[in-house]
Amino acid sequence: MTGRVREAVFSSIAPSLPGADVLDLYAGTGSLGLEALSRGAATAVFVERDRAALRALRANIGAVGLGGEVVTGGVGAYLTSATAAPSSGPAVRFTLVFVDPPYELPITPVEQQLAAAALLLRDRGSLILHRRLGERRPEAPGLRLTRTRAYGTARIWRYQQDPDGFRLDLPQSARRRRGDEGGKGGLPR
Fold this sequence. Notes:
Elements: H1 3-13, E1 21-25, H2 31-38, E2 43-48, H3 51-64, E3 69-72, H4 75-83, E4 94-99, H5 107-118, E5 121-132, E6 143-151, E7 154-161, H6 172-178
Parallel strand pairs: 1-2, 1-4, 2-3, 4-5
Antiparallel strand pairs: 5-7, 6-7
């Protein structure tokens, strides 16, 4: 995400940042989560698996000095683990989730990850997705699209948690994608 796009995103979400708990998926060097912390977010969890990006992420967290938890591993694995909680729901909830996957990642696995991330949002929590301009609108249960904006070759999708969008009677194929059944289901790594 370019600096111009990042500034536009943060200008639009500024009122929700003070005290927020942030999840930065595909964190890379941590620019989104660190920007949120610098604007008043209380906590940030950074999920990244690339070794070079992890080195830069840890260095940036140390240089900025605002803290943050680094989770080493794939986004799919993190979401599977974080959403595999007791019937009372996930133990960790976030006010704001950033999802900035590589453009090469097809939209279907992105949608699966959005659905899992929606389970981690607090009431009225927001999710910001960065994708390539021209892709179809990503859909996910539990999320309601509230804003979309194009910047050059990028599109930013902003969603809000929609508890009415969750279906407890998911079809078998959706349960497999979410990993709710035995076997190898789960989310893309």
